[in-house]
Amino acid sequence: MSNRNRAPEYALPGLPGEIKQLRLELKLLAEVGIIGLPNAGKSTLISSLSAARPKIADYPFTTLIPNLGVVRKPTGDGTVFADIPGLIEGAAHGAGLGHDFLRHIERTRVLLHLIDATSDNVLRDYNTIKEELQAYGRGLAERPQILALNKIDAVDRETVDLEALATQLNHLSYSPVFVISAVTRTGLETMLQEIWGILDQMKVPQEVEVFS
Ligand SMILES: Nc1nc2c(ncn2[C@@H]2O[C@H](COP(=O)(O)OP(=O)(O)OP(=O)(O)O)[C@@H](O)[C@H]2O)c(=O)[nH]1
Ligand SMILES: [Mg+2]
Question: Residues in domain Obg (predicted)?
Answer without folding.
Answer: 1-29
